[in-house]
Amino acid sequence: MTKVRIPTPLRPKTGGKSEVEVQASSIAEMIDSLESAYPGIKERLCDESGEIRRFLNIYLNEEDIRFLEGKETPLKDSDEVSIIPAIAGGK
Amino acid sequence: MLTIPTSIAEEMIAHARKLDPHECCGILGGKDHTVSQHYPITNILANLSEDELGRFDGPKLSDLKQLSPEERADIAFQMDSQEMGKALRDIRDKSISLQAFYHSHTFSPARPSQTDITIAMEFESYREKLNLPEPLHLIISLLDKSSPDIRAYRIVNHESLEIRTILT
C-alpha cells in the first residue's frame, strides 16, 4: 500500500483524514483509487483534461512527479506521496 | 536577519509595480540567510474558478467570492505550482536553499494577514516531509507607491515575527 498525504483543503473529502493508504502501481492509478474510496476527490486534483491542477504539486517521497514521469510515475509499496498546494496568501 | 542584494530588491519591487493592483509572488533562494536567486512566479488566482478557491477559508473566501476573478488577484495570490516546483528544483540543482516566499500587498502595510499566517502554517505542516528549510515570508507593500516597504517575517505557531532585512 502507498501512503498518501492529503492537504488540509482536501480533507473534507477524506472524512478529515490527513493520510490514507491506497493500492496503486502509478500516480494515475493512485488518483483513480482515491476517487473510488473518496468520490469527488479526483475533480479536486485534476482539471477537465485530466492534468494535475495548476495550484497543486504531487511529490513522490521528496521529488515533484513533474520531474519524474508525471502521472505515469510508478509507485512501490513503501512509497509516500504528498499532495501539496502551492503557496498562497493575500492581504 | 535576511540579506538581499539591492538588485534583487529592485527586481521584486519592479515585479510588484508591474502587476499592481494585482498581488505578485515569488521565491528567493540563497545560502546562510543571504539571497542570491530570485524566481518571480505567476499569480494564477485570477485564472481559478470559484470551485478552486477551496484552500482559502472563512472571511477570505467570502471576500473572494464577491469579486470578479480579475479583482480577486488584488487581494490574494496563488502561486503557479509548476513554476514553484521548477524554482525549488533549480534551487536544489544550484546547491543553494530556499530562503523566502514573497508577495506584494498593493494597498495595505507589509504585515502578514491572517490568510498569510494560516497558509504559511499549512505549508509548515508539509515542509519537513519535502526536506525543505523553514522559509521566511517577505512582503512588499505598495501602500506608499513612491516608497515601497519590504519586510520579512518568520511565521511560527500561528504568529509572525519580523526579521531584520539588510540590503547590500
Query: Which shape of chain A, going by the Cα principal axes?
Result: globular
Radius of gyration of chain A (CA) equals 12 Å
Give the DSSP E fraction of chain B (strand runs of 2 or more residues): 25-35%
- Could you tell me the number of beta strands of chain A? 6
Q: Supply the helix-strand structural class of chain A.
A: alpha+beta
Question: What is the level-2 CATH architecture name of chain B?
Answer: 3-Layer(aba) Sandwich
Can you say what the CATH homologous superfamily of chain B is?
A: Cytidine Deaminase, domain 2
Descriptors:
heterodimer, A: 91 residues, alpha+beta, 5-stranded mixed beta sheet, 2 helices, 6 strands, 18% helix, 25% strand, B: 168 residues, alpha/beta, Cytidine Deaminase, domain 2, 6-stranded mixed beta sheet, two-stranded parallel sheet, 5 helices, 33% helix
Model description:
The complex is a heterodimer of chains A (91) and B (168). Chain A is an alpha+beta fold. Chain A has helices at 27-37, 41-45; strands at 2-5, 19-22, 56-60, 63-64, 80-85, 88-89. In chain A, a hairpin with a 2-residue loop joins strand 3 (56-60) and strand 4. Chain B has 168 residues and is an alpha/beta fold. In chain B, the strands form two sheets. A six-stranded mixed beta sheet of chain B has the order 3-2-5-6-7-8. A two-stranded parallel sheet of chain B has the order 1-9. Chain B is globular. In chain B, 41% of the residues are buried. The mean pLDDT of chain B is 95. Classes of the chains: A alpha+beta (91), B alpha/beta (168). Chain A binds chain B through residues 5, 7-10, 44, 52-57, 59, 62, 64, 66-67, 80, 82, 84-91, and chain B through 23, 25, 44-45, 47-48, 52, 54-57, 60, 75-82, 84-85, 88-89, 101, 103, 105-108, 112-113, 115-116, 119-120, 122-123, 125-126, 129-131, 137.
